[in-house]
Amino acid sequence: MTKSTFKKFSRGGVADPLRIQPRDIALLRDMWEFRFLNTEQILALHDGSRRNLKARLNLLFQHGYLDRPVVQKTARLATSHIVYSLGRKSAEVLASNAEEREGILRRVREVEKSLVPIIGHSLMISQFRVCLTLALRKKGSRITRWLQGQDLKEVLSYRGANPPLVPDAYFKIEDEGDTINFFLEADRATMTTERFVRKLKIYWSWREDKTLQ
Question: Would you say residue 211 has pLDDT above 80?
């Protein structure tokens, strides 16, 4: 590992406090929503100078509001862009009460436990969501609900048992007065045909289920 690579994942021990700006809050909220985003995905979601945005991301990392998961160094990701996740210090500025703070920290702990295969898969989900968000933004539509990970599992466990399937995401779109519900399956060419067919049958059985609507 080169010295420059090591520096990317270590904090320099900054002493001066960082004054959080409204744009910083928007960046941190994105990290809360997406769990993992690389630099290019973040730049695609936010207007402004690329140079300034990159500098701000670095400051948020150095001050502990963002993390750069070390696991990405061995994940063999499709791009070399730095991957960010939410830092524990972000709870100080995102939470309005103790319950919200614990929810944010729970999400941070969930992300911190991510292993090498998970980060690659999560970035694939993020890439889909970023592209969908930008496409909907152009036509004046939007995603009104998005669930994934533990949040989605808890909703699907409403009957008190482990769900037979936890999709990679569930989302709802409002478009021209209509509300449309979707499940997302993001496959990195690891799923057998038999397993995929089993998933389709479960989705069909959920078709009339109103729990997620």
Answer: no
